[in-house]
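Why do we bother with holo predictions? Because pocket geometry can differ from the apo form. Keep that in mind while you read this record for glutamine.
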Amino acid sequence: MPTTATRLQVFQESVIRAMTRQANQYQSINLAQGFPDFDPPAALVEALEQAARGPFHQYSITWGAARFRQALAAKIGRFTGLAIDPEQHLVVTCGSTEAMMVAMMTACNPGDKVIVFSPFYENYAADAILSGAEPIYVSLRAPDFVFDAGELRRAFAQKPKAIVVCNPSNPSGKVFTRAELEFILQLAQEHDTFVLMDEVYEHIVYEPHRHIPFATLPGAEERTLTCGSLSKTYSITGWRLGYVLADARIIGQARKVHDFLTVGAAAPLQEAAVTALEFPPSYYIDLQAEYARKRDLFLGYLAKTGLPYTQPQGAYYTLVDISKLGRSFADDHAAAEWFTREIGVTGVPGSSFFREPEYRYLRFHFAKKDETLIQAGQRLLEKL
Ligand code: GLN
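The structure, written out:
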């Protein structure tokens, strides 16, 4: 048999997705892969039913159905104040997973360096490697996940082609301050670096924190590729609808990558999702309140276990420190498996998010029905 590509030998299959399979195998509550177990808004499901009966069963325009892009541009414009031309500034992708890959391949040549903050969402390193680029890591230090300005400067001194920033951040829950974002922009401008923003959790931010879209910083537009998604905002992770937002010249190139990767996102789903993009402001206020409540509910149980955990400022993850558990495990994978088998609650081994040799965390998410979170919380309390 011929040998498969060497670039595939330097990264693993996704640990997040593997933990979902483990949870299913043991019928454990899956707080590993971040997706809701509750339904999307009813209006959206109705729109999908209608779209199924409409003339939307063939390819849409490769960079996104016109109506979807118009609604998306209007929605982003309402929240950011940016003037977005749906014909020039957007390419619609199969989820933000594809958006990130498109952004990386648009920005980077093989051999280029890409700064990635650690801890990081596991796709970024794989995206860099698949693009032929080399990730260089800058630590976000627990518990506040601040970066060291000197360390970031030294990383920029290596002349990276791009930096990846997830804001709000998965898995740390960090929401970058304006000052931090301005500092990143200043370095990116000094070194002529692209900024690849993953802003899929833009609408899941907890008081008093605020999400600042990077592209709104003065001077950021010409080097920022913002990756967004409808998955988390409208609880439709299976619809696989995402996008890249950038300057027209960048999007002109990004469309080519997207076209040859996937041709397009699902046409009937784009049609139906217009309904979501036209939801009133109250939808987003309610979403924030709902997630704040879920966060308090789940973290309330964690507090009672006595284990230290991170307090998310945004997104819906917490890193639980299991080193104080009074049990020793070979590593965090063994710990995660013990949680699945013995407790019936599945998380993700923290090491899959860290560049540093860090084995003391399991990541849990709380995008679940209250009853699921209560059941998970009770199981944790009983067994820990
Ligand atoms: N972003 C989610 C997580 O971190 C899931 C993403 C995925 O598996 N595609 O769990």
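The chain has a mean pLDDT of 97.
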